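=== Structural record ===
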Amino acid sequence: MVNKQKICHINSVKLKKLAHSFLLQLARLTPDVSYGDLSFILMDDAGITELNLDYLDHAFATDVLTFPYLHNSLTGQIIDAEIIVNIQRALAEGPKHGGASRELALYMAHGCDHLSGLNDDTLNGMHQMRIRELNWLRNARKANLTTSLLITS
C-alpha cells in the first residue's frame, strides 16, 4: 500500500486487510493465473489525472486505474500489477453511495476485477463486473473490512 495523497488520513492496517481479502477472492476466481507483486497506490484527483493522461490519453480524474504487467519466469507467466485508487473521488462520491469507505472499497474491488480479465467497456462487461464487485463487498462487509478506512477529521 503506497499513500501518495494528502486529502485525508487512512487506516492502513484495515486497508491492507481489505486488499488482501480482495486479492484472495481474485486468486480463487483465476486459479490458472500466477500473481506476483500487487500494489495499491492511493492518489488524489491531480495525481490520477496525470496518470490517466499519460497512459490513456484521458484528461480527467477517474476512480481507479489498473496496470497489469505480465512477465515470464521459469515457472510460467506471472502478473504483477499496480492498482491506483482515487481517495478524493471516494470522498466526493461516497456520500451518494453508502459512504466514502464503502466507495473506496468498491474502487479497490473494481481494480482487482480488471486483473481477472473482465472489462467495463461494454454494458455486459460493466454488469458482470458490478455483480462480482458487490459480492466481494458483501464478503468484506461481513468481515468488518469496509468501515473506517478513511479518517477525515
Observations:
- Residues 40 and 141 are 19 Å apart (CA to CA).
- The longest strand covers residues 76-86.
- The helical segments are 12-29, 45-56, 87-93, 100-115, 123-142.
